[in-house]
Amino acid sequence: MTPLASFRRWAHTNGVVSKLVPKDSKGMGVGLFLVSTDLIDPELENILDQGELLLVPQDLLLTRSRVIQFNCSHLQKSLSIIGRSTISERLAIVLFILSQRLLLEHHATSTDHHNSSNKDSEQNRHLFADYIATLPDVSTPVTLEPELVRGYLAGTLLLDSVCAKRSKLEAEFGHLSGNLGVFEDWPVRPTLENFIWADATFWSRILSFKTQWTDNGTSSDADDDMHMVPYLDFANHSANPNIRWEVDSDGLRVWAYESLLQDSHNSVVSREVFLSYGNKPNTELLFLYGFTLQNNPTELLTLAMPMDEDDPYYMPKAHSLMRWGIQPRVTIHLNQTDCPDLEELCPGLWIARQSRDLLWLYALSEDDGLSALIEEPDSKVCVIQDSADQDDEEDALEEADLVDEDIVGRLVLTINDTKVETREALESIVPKLDIFPVIKLRILVLVAQRIEYYIARIMETGDKVQKAEDIDLLRPVQYDANGHPTNVRSPSPNHGEAPVSRLGRNLGDCLVPTILEPDHTQPITNRQLEAEAQVSNLVTTMKNYRAEEMGVLVAMGDLLGEAQTQCLEESDFIQSYLARMQLQDS
């Protein structure tokens, strides 16, 4: 029996009620399909309400609370080391699916069915084993070989995010395995790649329930936000979903939109159902799930916007941003409907209020009335022990401010002698300044310069992409009828040809990713072949995404350039201001 068939039987045995069937979706792994109404079991019509397609009982929702109660000795010891009361929802679920996946793989290959790992596996098989067995080898840029990703995403904003995520996971795994010794008693020790797989699986399948639990207090999991939902998590994403989900004390329910019900009545074939993963741009879809959408209606980029360290007000500006919780980055939208409360940066581009406040602060200068002061604390503490002149004391206070501003005082910005201690104060003062039209122009220039930087970075890294193209990602290998490699031939010189997968064990040639170096003493597995297809598709997606990001950057740069020209041509105030500045400089 295939893992998918075993899963369906397990789901039915454990109370899942469904009109949906998980099966292969062309180019999208496994999806969920609604069969024709003529083929639906009539008994389901009496169990599910009108328009209801799926019920996953609460006992099958995988949460931190479920993990903490799970009867697995080595996992429980790991949770104790970290701290059951403090472990995050993410890490608890990641460790669970990691430990159970390793046990299942070990059980499948081990000839000793009496060791402790097999006892753990058998003892808990009735819980989530059949679900864990269906989890695919997720392929996202984070899970791939770093050098490969650096080639295909060279120069992009997405590469920065991937490298940062990879570094964070490497540090976390090192801390868990080294400093804490979390995996010491595990029958199978995870590798870094195993840990990255579990993290990617978590983020690609998790649902946030937030406040959807009913308020009647009947749910034992009301405090859990993050949930993995067997069965529903086979559903693929669409910007135009045809199903929705909701939760109550019984579990999770899935409902059809009217369009799907009409289509199913008029069709004799099964229809795939789609969820919305949210209004996510292709950058986020590729980062989390390993795919992108053509003509994605959510089009945006998030630019890192570090402050100019030569700014004489660098320190008080930085302190203000930290107190207000504003990160040094700006998200720019090409569609005003992406999220509520967006504000126009220029015609065709929109930003959130937080990004606007950051840019206002960056654009302000001493010429606009900007200044700063050290605000003494309520309980004054003498920091300078030795006598010193006033300049030395001010320098010392500013340096100490970085350590504990509650003791030595805070650096506070002022505009025309008015303190700017909050974002609300900034927002009430800046638009009323006479110089405000010039500030808006400065912002356009600041953002345009940053976009030019990223365009240049992509253009300058073209050689890295060419080197990546020259790497033999896929190695042609011939297999006999039993799936054993019979010879390894030299790589094909036709690097430009799209690799073609064969997800079976027939005679002939198939392509195996070199990053999954096959063991030539063992038969090639369907899992390796499926991974081959995933990697091949992901490489193509990354190449296309790089070109797409470049196109978005260029489009944004063009709009900003047009806006700057319009400001200069239409604003008499800006023209007179620039003329005055020119006279002062001369």
Radius of gyration: 29 Å
Proportion of residues in β-strands: 15-25%
> What level of helicity do the residues show?
40-55%
Note the overall shape. Answer: elongated
Task: Give the count of structural domains.
Answer: 3
Order of strands, main sheet, comes to: 1-4-9-8
Number of helices: 21
Main beta sheet: 4 strands, antiparallel
Number of strands: 20
Give the CA-CA distance, first to last residue: 84 Å
Q: List the uncertain runs.
A: 111-124, 214-220, 379-388, 392-403, 474-518
Q: Mean pLDDT, rounded to whole units?
A: 80
What oligomeric state do the depicted chains represent? Answer: single chain
What is the structural class? Answer: alpha+beta
Provide tags for this entry:
single chain, alpha+beta, four-stranded mixed sheet, 21 helices, 20 strands, elongated
What do you see in this structure?
The protein is α+β, with helices and mostly antiparallel strands. It folds into 3 domains: 71-224, no CATH class; 291-433, no CATH class; 435-586, no CATH class. It has 21 helices and 20 strands. It has a 4-stranded antiparallel sheet with strand order 1-4-9-8. The longest helix is centred in the last third of the chain and has 45 residues, at 526-570. It is elongated and about 85 Å long. The termini are far apart. The model is unreliable at 111-124, 214-220, 379-388, 392-403 and 474-518 (pLDDT under 50). Residues 160-278 form the SET domain. InterPro entries: SET_dom, SET_dom_sf, SETD3_SETD6_MTase. This is SET domain-containing protein. It comes from Linnemannia gamsii.
